[in-house]
């Protein structure tokens, strides 16, 4: 809420100035509405997030708080759709801690870890960095190069023959850390590997993405643009342990 | 790339793009059209791709529909999706006025900037008419906008499925009436008999009018 005394005479509701309290206020309202809408749409199939219960409602409130505080603290990025998907597994794990003393601090703990995780990924959310070496495009290019290095034939068929631009599928794979590609609980499994990787989550993620392509190699090679787009945008249910095994093997092979 | 049968399973392939603000119901509209269902969907990140087969008259059509993310952050990336589209559907939410004003402020400009197709057919769609009591944009305003920008216009509800099929069918009919677009969309590009049709009829364009 705005306190009356903080608004100077020069400031007014139509001001577009950066220092305008009014402007900040309206911007915040917009962000809050967007976050509100997206948190409600986060995992509508999982009762923890979206049941008609006070538990689910309080979980949604916590998630909204975290996303809003992050947006306020990171003015260059604010809130970008998809952050809700990244936050969900983190918050879920902390909130379900069997130790009640720990789970009661889930909101604060999840916030800390969310900030920590995004410190390595937030550049992908920043439109101004799209064409820079730290932006999303360069991460997608790195994946493409990784595939090419590992399996030239597959790379050629995908990108040259069937013209599937890796951006069409890998944008979501990378910015959302695979949260929309697998079931929520399979994701927790994948994230265990991502977050415990000594080389950092991004290296691990790119390795897993490459392994995902390699695992459906035969179908991709036999496919045309349409079927390949469908396959990669709706990745089939997979044995996650096997996927991680392939990703690991692939990476150790690359290092040789 | 061709199917082993040698006969393409469609006569025309058209690329259709869905654009508009976040949360207006682009993905819901598409889901309602392709699988007759309505669900709470998570926000689209990047782009979503769906295919729908339609038969109109005697013609078999394959629609490749690109459903783009609405949030501003994704706009630099969506620009490449406009390339080669024969149809563009601009969606707004009839209960949220800003999603309508953004059409002229943002989306119409995006089309001008990125669409590679001069004759590309545009369609304006006001979604969520099931929430009539919350309406913030009148039908008349929609019609006026469509007239000004030279688009087709419909109001629909992805939830109740009112007018959903019509959105896509009217767009496709209009594409089919546009020789330059049907020439591009002819299937396979190599072996289809329809490919030569528009080119041939260009010398006798009157016959084209009669045939439709």
From TrEMBL, chain A:
Domain Rab-GAP TBC: 12-198
Gene3D superfamilies xref list: putative rabgap domain of human tbc1 domain family member 14 like domains, Ypt/Rab-GAP domain of gyp1p, domain 3
Record PROSITE patterns: TBC_RABGAP
Name the UniProt record assigns to this protein: Rab-GAP TBC domain-containing protein
Species, as recorded: Eruca vesicaria subsp. sativa
InterPro entries xref list: Rab-GAP-TBC_dom, Rab-GAP_TBC_sf
Automatic annotation (TrEMBL), chain B:
Coiled-coil ranges from the UniProt annotation: none
Pfam families: Ras (PF00071)
Annotated PROSITE patterns: RAB (PS51419), RAS (PS51421), RHO (PS51420)
InterPro entries, sorted: P-loop_NTPase, Rab, Small_GTP-bd, Small_GTPase
Localization in the cell: Cell membrane
Compositionally biased intervals (Low complexity): 202-212
A biological process term (GO) from this entry: protein transport
A Gene Ontology cellular-component term: plasma membrane
Keywords: Cell membrane, GTP-binding, Lipoprotein, Membrane, Nucleotide-binding, Prenylation, Protein transport, Transport
Molecular functions per Gene Ontology: GTP binding; GTPase activity
Domain of life of the organism encoding this protein: Eukaryota
Annotated CDD domains: Rab18
Residue numbers spanned by region Disordered: 182-212
Membrane topology: Lipid-anchor
Biological role: Intracellular vesicle trafficking and protein transport.
Family that this chain belongs to: Belongs to the small GTPase superfamily. Rab family.
Name this polypeptide is given: Ras-related protein RABC1
Organism per entry: Brassica carinata (Ethiopian mustard)
């Amino acid at each position: 809420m705005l306190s009356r005394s903080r608004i100077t005479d020069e400031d007014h509701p139509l001001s577009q100035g950066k220092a305008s309290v009014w402007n900040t206020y309206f911007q915040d309202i917009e962000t809050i509405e967007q976050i509100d809408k997206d948190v409600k749409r986060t995992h509508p199939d999982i009762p923890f997030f979206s049941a008609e219960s006070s538990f689910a409602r309080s979980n949604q409130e916590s998630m909204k708080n975290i996303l809003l505080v992050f947006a306020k603290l990171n003015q260059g990025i604010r809130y970008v759709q998809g952050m809700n998907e990244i936050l969900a597994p983190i918050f879920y794990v902390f909130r379900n801690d069997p130790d009640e003393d720990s789970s009661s601090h889930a909101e604060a703990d999840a916030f800390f870890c969310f900030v920590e995780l995004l410190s390595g990924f937030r550049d992908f959310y920043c439109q101004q960095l799209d064409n820079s070496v730290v932006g999303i495009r360069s991460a997608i290019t790195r994946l493409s190069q990784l595939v090419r290095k590992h399996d030239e034939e597959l790379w050629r068929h995908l990108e040259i023959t069937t013209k599937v631009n890796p951006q069409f599928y890998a944008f979501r794979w990378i910015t959302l850390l695979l949260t929309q590609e697998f079931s929520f609980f399979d994701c927790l499994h994948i994230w265990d590997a991502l977050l415990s990787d000594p080389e950092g989550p991004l290296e691990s993620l790119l390795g897993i993405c490459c392994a995902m392509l390699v695992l459906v190699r035969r179908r991709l090679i036999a496919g045309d643009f349409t079927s390949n787009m469908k396959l990669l945008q709706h990745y089939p249910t997979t044995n996650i342990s096997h996927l991680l095994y392939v990703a690991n093997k692939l990476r150790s092979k690359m290092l040789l | 790339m061709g199917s082993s049968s040698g006969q393409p399973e469609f006569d025309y392939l058209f690329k259709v793009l869905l654009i508009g603000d976040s949360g207006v119901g682009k993905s819901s509209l598409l889901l309602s059209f392709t699988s007759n269902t309505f669900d709470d969907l998570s926000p689209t990140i990047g782009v979503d791709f769906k295919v729908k087969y339609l038969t109109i008259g005697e013609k078999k059509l394959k629609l490749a529909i690109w459903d783009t993310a609405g949030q501003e952050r994704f706009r630099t990336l969506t620009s490449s999706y406009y390339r080669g589209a024969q149809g563009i559907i601009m969606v707004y939410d009839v209960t949220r006025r800003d999603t309508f004003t953004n059409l002229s402020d943002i989306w119409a400009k995006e089309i001008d900037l990125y669409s590679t197709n001069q004759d590309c057919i545009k369609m304006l769609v006001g979604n969520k008419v099931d929430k009539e009591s919350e309406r913030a944009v009148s039908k008349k305003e929609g019609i006026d906008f469509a007239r000004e920008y030279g688009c087709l216009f419909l109001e629909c509800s992805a939830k109740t499925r009112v007018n959903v099929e019509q959105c896509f069918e009217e767009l496709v009919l209009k594409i089919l009436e546009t020789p330059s677009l049907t020439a591009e969309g002819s299937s396979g590009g190599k072996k289809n008999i329809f490919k030569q049709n528009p080119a041939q009829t260009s010398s006798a364009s009157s016959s084209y009018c009669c045939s439709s």
